[in-house]
């Protein structure tokens, strides 16, 4: 079986999203290669442990750095698919991705490139600055990939469930699930897509070998992951048996928080404003360039929000 599956290289394997990609690739039976920076392993015990877990799971660890072009070409020659999870927070994501794209072209054997995305559809995104410019880099990368003729799949159209919103039952600035009151941005009726990171990785790896996703944008919109904030709170109230006082925060106040609020929450407000008020994870899918993951891969047993919320309930002995 493994013989027919593509060999997958994960660049950014020790990062937040990369580790889920390595796990999914191994789990789905792909010969998996994780690019790991040697310094990271020697300096960060947590990441060293993570790399050990990759090895135990059966992934091949390749020590290296994307800036070592000679070695990068040798690595690329050994694989069929590249999944990139370099961070959008680096000021040189565009340059790094272009370097990868050029190396992929030079190697000539890569059947699919999956660039670092996994969030909103950045080409059609209505989000406030500076998030717009920061994420706009990903749109520039898409354009470059198309210009260079590298076979690709873009994976996007959702928010990462566990990264921020789900553990707080959709709130911004809270430290956990609501207890007595809950703050809702806008009217709470906008639908938003929240997909568990593991499921994003599963769909990404499934897409890597599938001709239906070649040179397409694959949106992640499994029906059980589409929910409004009000609906999420309804579910939470039902699970806890406790009614919450709902405080609705008008859009103007959300914008004020983005422009003048504490620096540490501005980014979350920007993303929440785009997702929970402006509905930016629910844009229409243009079927000439876009496909939806759960329609393509109905066999994937993803985690609906309803089930994910159960994981937040206190454990009773
Ligand atoms: N984090 C989230 O919650 C989230 C949510 C939605 C979407 N996303 C998207 O997911 C993508 C990945 O973001 P992330 O948060 O997972 O990034 P991250 O945690 O910062 O991970 C970046 C990875 O890139 C590696 N890396 C950096 N420079 C490298 C180099 N020169 N050579 C080889 N490897 C290098 C890092 O290695 P070291 O471990 O050695 O530093 C790390 O493994 C981004 O497009 C982001 O926008 C993230």
Automatic annotation (TrEMBL):
InterPro entries referenced in this protein's UniProt entry, alphabetically: NAD(P)-bd_dom_sf, NmrA-like, NmrA-type/Isoflavone_red_sf, PCBER-like
Keywords: NADP, Oxidoreductase
Domain NmrA-like, chain residue ranges per copy: 6-306
A molecular-function term among this protein's GO annotations: oxidoreductase activity
Alphabetical list of Pfam families matching this protein: NmrA
PANTHER family named among the record's database cross-references: PINORESINOL REDUCTASE-RELATED (PTHR43349), PINORESINOL-LARICIRESINOL REDUCTASE 3-RELATED (PTHR43349:SF34)
Protein name per the record: NmrA-like domain-containing protein
Organism of derivation: Vanilla planifolia
């Amino acid at each position: 079986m493994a013989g027919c599956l593509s060999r997958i290289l994960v660049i950014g394997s020790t990062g937040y999203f990369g580790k889920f990609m390595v796990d999914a690739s191994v789990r789905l039976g792909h010969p998996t290669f994780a690019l790991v920076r040697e310094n990271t392993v020697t300096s960060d015990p947590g990441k060293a442990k993570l790399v050990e877990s990759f090895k135990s799971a059966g992934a091949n660890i390749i020590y290296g750095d994307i800036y070592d072009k000679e070695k990068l070409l040798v690595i690329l020659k050994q694989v069929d698919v590249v999944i990139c999870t370099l961070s959008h927070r680096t000021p040189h994501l565009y340059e790094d991705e272009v370097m990868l794209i050029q190396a992929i072209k030079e190697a000539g054997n890569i059947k699919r490139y999956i660039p670092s995305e996994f969030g909103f559809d950045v080409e059609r995104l209505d989000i406030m600055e500076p998030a717009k410019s920061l994420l706009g880099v990903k749109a520039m990368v898409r354009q470059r990939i198309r210009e260079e003729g590298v076979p690709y799949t873009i994976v996007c159209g959702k928010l990462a469930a566990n990264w921020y919103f789900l553990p707080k039952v959709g709130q911004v600035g809270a430290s956990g699930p609501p207890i007595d009151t809950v703050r809702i941005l806008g009217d709470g009726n906008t639908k938003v897509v929240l997909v568990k990171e593991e499921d994003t990785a599963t769909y990404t790896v499934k897409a890597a070998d599938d001709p239906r996703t070649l040179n397409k944008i694959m949106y992640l919109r499994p029906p059980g992951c589409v929910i409004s904030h009000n609906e999420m709170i309804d579910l939470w109230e039902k699970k806890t048996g406790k009614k919450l006082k709902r405080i609705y925060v008008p859009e103007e106040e959300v914008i004020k928080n983005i422009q003048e609020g504490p620096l540490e929450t501005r980014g979350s407000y920007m993303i929440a404003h785009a997702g929970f008020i402006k509905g930016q994870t629910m844009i229409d899918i243009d079927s000439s360039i876009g496909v939806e993951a759960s329609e393509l891969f109905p066999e994937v047993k993803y985690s609906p929000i309803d089930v994910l919320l159960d994981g937040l309930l206190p454990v009773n002995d």
